Amino acid sequence: MIRLLYRPLGQALGLCLFAASALAASGGQSLSLNWVGCGISKKAYMQEIATLYEKKTGIHIDIAGGGATKGIREISANKVDIGGSCRFRLPNNSAESDAVMVPVAWDALVIITHPDNPVGDLTLDQLRLIYTGKLTNWNALGGPDAPINVYVRQGNLSGVGYKLRELVFANPDQTFAATEVFPSSGPLEQAVETDVHAIAVSGISSARKRNVKLMQLEGKDPTYENIRDGEYLLYRPLYLAYNRDGENAEEVKKFIQFVHGHEGQAVLRHNGTVPYLEAIHLVRKKLEQSKRARENAGL
C-alpha cells in the first residue's frame, strides 16, 4: 500500500523538475487533445486551466465528463489523451493497468446538506451510522423531526464512492442505505440544493461552488488551510492520467508540467484547490488516515 501511495508522488516530483523549462513551441500546429474524467476535477480546475493553456500554447483541450472510472479506463485503452480522476487505478485490474496516474492536487470529501438545515457538524461515527441506515432522523443530531435523505453516487467505483468506502469504512464493498442514487456528482449536488432534509458526500472542489452547506467534520471546516495542513480528515489526491503509448503522450506530459508549474498552481489556488506539491506531507498522513479507518472498522 505504501508503495502505491509513493509511486504517484515520485511521478509528480519527476514531472515537476521540468516545470520551469519552456514548453515546446507549437510551430503553428492546430493540435487538439481530449480529456475525459471525473466531474469534480472538471469543475474544480480543468476548464479554467485548459483555457489558459490554450492561450499560452495554442493547443486546445476538449473536455468531457463521464466519471473517474471512465477517465482511467479510456486512458488505459488508449482511447483519449488525458484522463481525470479522484481515485487511483485499481490494483490488478487489467482495464486500468496501463493508466499512468500523476497526482496534481488535493481535494477533500465534504458532507453537504441544504443551507437551511440547522445541523452543521458531524462526527465520523455519526456519518457511518447515517450511511449504514442506523441513524435515520435529523432530530438525533439536534435537527428537526424529519427523515435523513441520503443521496449517494451510483456504483462502488465512482471517485467519491470509492474513497468514502476506503476512508470511512475501510471496505470497498460497503453498501449504503441510500434514499436516492445519482449517476454523477453534479446532479447529486443539485438535488441537495433543493432538499432541506438531504445529506450527501461530494468533493469540496465542486461542492463549494454550489448553494449547499459544507458541514464540519469532527469540528473542523473543510477550508483550504485545514485540507492543506491535514486537519480536515477526508482528503484525497486528484490525478491526471495518460498512456505511455498514446499518440500525444509527450504533449500530455507538457500539459501536466504546466499544471505543476507556477501558472497552473495559481489556477488551482484560485479555485480553492490545494496543489499536490504544496502539501506533500499529506501522503504520510494519508497512511494514518487509512490505518484509522481500518481500526474503526475493527480490521
* CATH third-tier fold name of the largest domain: D-Maltodextrin-Binding Protein, domain 2
Class of the largest domain, according to the CATH hierarchy?
A: Alpha Beta
CATH arch. level architecture of the largest domain: 3-Layer(aba) Sandwich
Instruction: Report the radius of gyration as a whole number of Å.
Output: 19 Å
Average pLDDT: 88
Distance between the termini: 16 Å
Instruction: Kindly state the percentage of residues in helix.
Output: 25-40%
CATH superfamily of the largest domain: Periplasmic binding protein-like II
Tally of individual helices: 11
Given as residue ranges, the uncertain stretches (5+ residues, pLDDT < 50) are 1-6, 14-28
Tally of separate domains:
2
Largest sheet: 10 strands, mixed
Assembly type of the shown chains? single chain
Strand element count: 12
Structural class: alpha/beta
In percent, how much strand structure appears in the residues? 15-25%
- Could you state the order of secondary-structure elements as H and E? HEHEHEEEHEHEHEHEEHEHHEH
Assign an overall shape. globular
